[in-house]
Amino acid sequence: MNKRVGLVVDDRLLKHVIPRHSPENPGRIGKLSALVRERYRTECRFYQARTAAVSDIEAVHSRFYLDQLREHQLRSEPFSYDRDTYLMKHSLATAHLAAGGCLELADRIMTGEVDHGFAMIRPPGHHAEPGRGMGFCILNNVAVTAEYLRRRYQLNRILILDFDAHHGNGTQEVFYDSDEVLVISVHQRDIFPFSGKAGETGSGKGEGYTINLPVFAQFGDAEYTFLLGRILQSVVEQYLPQILLISAGYDGHRDETISGTTLSTEWFGLITAMLKQYAREICGGRLLMVLEGGYNPLSLGASVVATIDSLLTARRDKIGIFFSERANQLLKDHPLHNRWALQ
Ligand SMILES: [Zn+2]
User: Fold this and answer.
1) pLDDT of residue 1
2) Structurally, what CATH architecture does the domain formed by 5-333 represent?
3) Active-site amino acid positions
């Protein structure tokens, strides 16, 4: 069988454990790892994570921050950046593996060994800023990957789509001045980290290349599909990305208590099908999905399975997009409405 989907599943990613009860714990993906290995044994290529090189991390994070991380790592007591972001004995090594797992898949996609990849990694990354960790995130996995793709493969049109329920503030900060990485974040408004307003649109050369879509709680499948369908159609066809990188967060699921949005398990399969279709049409199928949030192990597990199933399956029916007045209003009012012809 010609295996075109690559997965990073690695039990060493379970070693990062924080000292108090946290929704971001190894149990999120512990059982799921075993299930995924078994379910996709014959259909997918499996890869171990690798340790990201310091130079790859330094392309995104400040040396001061990395020195600070190393110093805390040497001490025996836990250190925390905020009430969610701890550094324990294995944390830094695990974070390097998580970022390296994404780089491993990026290489496999760029060399044509697979078309699509899903990196089932933790800790997540999209909140980590160049100079600090926050919101469970230590290193910004997707930003490290985009930087790596720019330097290693000279890509200069990379699209990052972040559909985690929370704004990808770290990713935004890394690429705020750049037109070589276009960052789209759709997230619930007025929740952590309280950034990602529609008016944050990039600066300098990057003006117009940060697109924030802060949505209302109660937005669900219909609104998200309409919104992303329209955005992708406008932006992907104009920007012509060379690869799609997805910050795949599952905490917008209706069974998550951490957000108010009401996405279904099936929606994660549907958005994956849509992304795959664009990747095929525009960039030779190159699609790399990176796990971010998702804290209810049941809905996370089912939604990750829906995602991977969708990466594997050719969808024959056309994806139904139904008009949503509230989502349409967000596009009409968006400051980049004219820039990207968002309608
Ligand atoms: Zn989140």
Assistant:
1) 63
2) 3-Layer(aba) Sandwich (3.40)
3) 127
